[in-house]
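Colleagues,

For the teaching module next term, I've prepared a clean inverse folding example: a structure given as tokens, and then the sequence designed for it. I'd like students to try predicting residues themselves before seeing the answer, so please don't circulate the second half yet.
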């Protein structure tokens, strides 16, 4: 087995995903750049390679069964296994003025679209990649979540948690719950799975509003992707430590 570790980062063509790929590449990982858009995907791979990262393109739409199956087959041909999976691809869904999603006027199709990407897409990709992850000596899975998924913080009137996001926030709470179920299923194995909050990062996802850079937002995910054996699993982290569910 090659000593070079293999990582797949979904939604890695820009923003936080790109910086996660950059950070893992700087640590010596060979990184699959998962993305739907061909031009952006190829551009990201070129930039990563120019920076010295051993990157390769992975056409990937997390909402498509065939796309995900094809991605797993590509990685098997390229590397024969997977050491790290970072489920970063996600969407916020349609918002109203002030970046608000009012629960009383939510379009149900919009909610389904958010859940399809942010939750079902993660399950689809994770399960497709599991046979490859099981070939690794130290497989790691990181699901990119958000502090707005914390029900504890959302329910605390004294905690500033941002605008009401009645589709996006619950989708990340759902993702957290799914992460815990995977951790329970993986108990007693060498697979570690955790959720990571990047914080409020200035990317196109947030309209470039936020005090944190993409590099800062990537830090927790990179740490969880490179945990030593015996590290935490089934937990929810930000820079300062564990986030309450």
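(Answer key — instructors only)
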């Amino acid at each position: 087995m090659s000593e070079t570790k293999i990582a797949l980062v979904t939604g890695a063509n820009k923003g936080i995903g790109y910086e996660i790929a950059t950070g893992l590449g700087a640590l010596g990982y060979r990184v699959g750049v998962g993305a739907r858009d061909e031009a952006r995907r190829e551009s990201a791979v070129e930039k990563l390679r120019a920076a010295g990262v051993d990157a390769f393109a992975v056409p990937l739409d997390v909402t498509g069964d065939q796309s995900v199956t094809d991605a797993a087959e590509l990685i098997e041909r390229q590397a024969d296994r997977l050491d790290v999976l970072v489920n970063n691809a996600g969407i916020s869904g349609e918002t109203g003025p002030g970046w608000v999603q009012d629960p009383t006027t939510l379009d149900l199709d919009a909610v389904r679209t958010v859940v399809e990407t942010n939750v079902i897409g993660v399950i689809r990709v994770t399960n497709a990649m599991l046979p490859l992850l099981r070939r690794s000596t130290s497989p790691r899975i990181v699901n990119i979540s958000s502090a707005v998924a914390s029900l504890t913080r959302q329910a605390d009137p004294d905690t500033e948690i941002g605008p009401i996001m009645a589709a996006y926030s619950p989708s990340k709470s759902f993702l957290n719950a799914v992460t815990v179920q995977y951790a329970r299923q993986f108990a007693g194995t060498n697979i570690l799975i955790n959720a990571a909050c990047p914080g409020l990062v200035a990317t196109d996802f947030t309209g470039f509003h936020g005090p944190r850079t993409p590099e800062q937002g990537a830090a927790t995910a990179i740490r969880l992707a490179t945990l030593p054996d015996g590290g935490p699993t089934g937990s929810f982290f930000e820079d300062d430590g564990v986030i309450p569910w």
